[in-house]
């Protein structure tokens, strides 16, 4: 028999080669298209939002804002085209020292002009009214400060802060921050912990209280925006984060490592131990005292962590970025106890015996020496 020509296998190989070649070409075209699209997107985002628009845009950059928060804020307010491009441009330029404050930008500003303004900390329109809210302030203290600076009665400020219709409106406007959790059973004040500590400036002392309170809520929302992914990964709601960070804030001294304090709280929660943190007792009592007495620990309240296991129903005050970050990223330790000396030094221990020894050395002896 004579050998037949292998035409069919050869044709199959040719078709396979053509298909592979076509696939490679298509892949290269897609990659090239994406690269070109990405290039033009970045080039566009590096340009002003609108070169012909000089309309003033007022932007508030909260204290403690990270580069991500600043970029997101500028994007949301229409000052830059892309938060991500602005963020990476700042890093590429190796720019540092962007400052918090109240700024006036325009859509025709270049990224370099925006960065320059943020570095100089030019605060515009400080005006007649300045309200300073420190870290660790409770809602009643904030209401008192607003009342003092605006001339509005403190009771009126508190009434607004606790008005359900107003809070529902804020829930609609800031759904990533405020939820129905603020109306949970045993919550003392729905907006406790949600009013960001910062310095607020206004052109007039006639600024509506509603707008002042909303601005404080808005700042908290913008600060927490940088932690959304971490919160989702840890399945932590804004309410839980602000609750834990408020406990850390109230316990921390200038010398304290907030991440270590955070680790103690989480370690105790994991073991089903009560947190036993004094600031919660004072919050339950509604008092500000330099020292918690044994009789105070008996107060009957869902906020008294000497009697109730777990977190408090809600925050016991506001908190800054360092405490929020500590609540999200506690240090890895075996500590179950800590105490702060009258000098502000914080001592940690793994056992009750060790804790009592430190307490005797740094606390009991101090007060006995004063008698």
Question: Order of strands in the sheet with the most strands?
Answer: 1-2
Structural class: mainly alpha
Q: How big is the Rg?
A: 28 Å
Helical fraction equals: 40-55%
Strand fraction: 5-15%
pLDDT < 50 runs, ≥5 residues? 1-5
Mean pLDDT over the full residue set: 86
Ends distance? 121 Å
- State the domain count: 3
Report the sheet with the most strands, covering strand number, pairing sense and barrel closure: 2 strands, antiparallel
Give the helix tally.
14
Shape: globular
Order of helices and strands: HEHHEHEHHHEHHHHHHEEH
Tell me the total number of β-strands.
6
Characterize the structure shown.
With 371 residues, this protein is mostly helical. The chain folds into three domains: 57-120, Dna Ligase, domain 1, CATH 3.30.1490.480; 129-225, no CATH class; 255-370, no CATH class. Helices cover 49% and strands 7% of the residues. It has 14 helices and six strands. It has helices spanning 7-45, 67-76, 83-92, 111-120, 139-150, 154-161, 164-173, 209-224, 228-233, 238-251, 258-270, 278-285, 321-328, 352-370; strands at 57-61, 101-105, 129-132, 199-202, 337-340, 346-349. The strands form three sheets. Strands 1-2 form a two-stranded antiparallel sheet. It has a two-stranded antiparallel sheet with strand order 3-4. Helix 2 (67-76) crosses helix 3 (83-92), helix 10 (238-251) packs across helix 13 (321-328) and helix 11 packs parallel to helix 13. Residues 1-5 have low confidence and may be disordered. It catalyses: a peptidoglycan chain = a peptidoglycan chain with N-acetyl-1,6-anhydromuramyl-[peptide] at the reducing end + a peptidoglycan chain with N-acetylglucosamine at the non-reducing end. Pfam families: YceG. The chain crosses the membrane at residues 20-42.
